[in-house]
Amino acid sequence: MNKFSRNQRITAITKTLIENPNKVINLNTFTNMFNAAKSTISEDVVIIRETLDKLSMGSIETISGAAGGIKYKYGISDEKVEEFAKNLCIILQDKQRIVPGEFLYISDIMFNPEIISTAAVILASQFKDLEVDYVVTVETKGIPLAYEVAKKLGVKLVIVRRDNKVTEGPTVSINYVSGSTKRIQTMSLSKRSICKESKCIFIDDFMKAGGTALGIINLLKEFESELIGIGVLIDDINTSKKLVNNYVSIIKFGGIDENNNPIVYPEKIRKK
Amino acid sequence: MNKFSRNQRITAITKTLIENPNKVINLNTFTNMFNAAKSTISEDVVIIRETLDKLSMGSIETISGAAGGIKYKYGISDEKVEEFAKNLCIILQDKQRIVPGEFLYISDIMFNPEIISTAAVILASQFKDLEVDYVVTVETKGIPLAYEVAKKLGVKLVIVRRDNKVTEGPTVSINYVSGSTKRIQTMSLSKRSICKESKCIFIDDFMKAGGTALGIINLLKEFESELIGIGVLIDDINTSKKLVNNYVSIIKFGGIDENNNPIVYPEKIRKK
């Protein structure tokens, strides 16, 4: 069996933890991988933990007991959150982004892995102390962000569809009223996608009045499940009355100014 | 300024590389982060590279010149690919997955970050030596997989829509014929989502006859762009005539057997 130096073990342990956020990894995984004693691995973990802590790159928790081990939780410093939100505002302020109807073109942002993975760290760290079973989103634009949040929380993603698909098996559909356009819309979800009595958070790209979020709350009731958190990348503050109260966002959108520029500014997210 | 030990530097460098696959990272990033000499960082990188290599966890390339630096490329061992495909087949063989019309319910798999991130490593490593500009997919089920492949290749994701959305600005739409159902369908893409003369790969969850892939080839022609690769998680081998030739898949689906069980087996992916 190959022997590994401390430096080598630290490389492999760090990689494994970063790629499996919020999952309990038993130390035996590493004692087997490196043919090393548990005490040796524990010392490696102490070094990794201290470094991540020092650089505000997340934290490592120790879970004791038979099913115990270590668990990496994503984290990000206040400065990094602020820097990210400021840079994103500069990208969003481009008047080329305005499409007829005072909408902002944001697909390139929502589908850019570099932006979305940082946004997901910021949103996931808001919910990391909750016991979340699923991250829920509605197709289509919010899917990459919701996927990344689910991954960083170590849970599964559930995608609510706009219509019934033959490949979904039996589904539950509900109608809801869009808060901004007042139009009746339908959302549907495969019956087998969520276990009863689950706790979910809803992640989306953009919130206007919150009609979709309210729809999700009602849809989850059909699954005897509960929505315990809402996170969006951009919150439209021009909508006078929001249909939901507790939600977090990263950017505020205030419409278009007299010079035809989008009004955007960073939301100050309270660190948890 | 804080001093960092080699162990600490290795922790932070590993994390940064893993989170930014296929992106050139200048060594100055690390000399600044740790207040260390370039030669010191180079020695750290040698240790990380050797470890990743030894454990088949990917590779680190050095890019010389003014814009140079180091670049992490995802990699996975043949044994891990085989193990992953075998385990996925066991999950897929469950007869509960069959929905009317001989379809397989796979949404839970396509939306499971643990499964999708490994599948994406396998697919991304097939295309890692191509110069890819975008990963393209069609909504909805393939989005998380396509997003992960894009992230691992360090490029942007493009999502083709089934209909026009008001938030997309001007779009280009084409009609295409589904290869299996022979129905005419529409796909549309925002004009601003792809630069001219781009090279793209198409990632999807499931391939029947390949009508969608053919549609993507034609849609990309409207953007004066080219499809240079196709990767799917599951390939339906019951479709006698495929409309596209070169594609990679991880699992083969051969329909339902006489005992009402799905026929699935691993595709042997040629390692690049």
From TrEMBL, chains A, B:
Residues 6-72 form the Bacterial purine repressor N-terminal domain. Residues 122-252 form the Phosphoribosyltransferase domain. SUPFAM superfamilies: PRTase-like, Winged helix' DNA-binding domain. It holds the Pfam family PuR_N. It comes from the Bacteria. GO terms for molecular function: DNA binding. Keywords: DNA-binding, Transcription, Transcription regulation. Belongs to the purine/pyrimidine phosphoribosyltransferase family. PurR subfamily. Homodimer. This is Pur operon repressor. The lineage of its organism: Bacteria, Bacillati, Bacillota, Clostridia, Eubacteriales. The gene is purR.
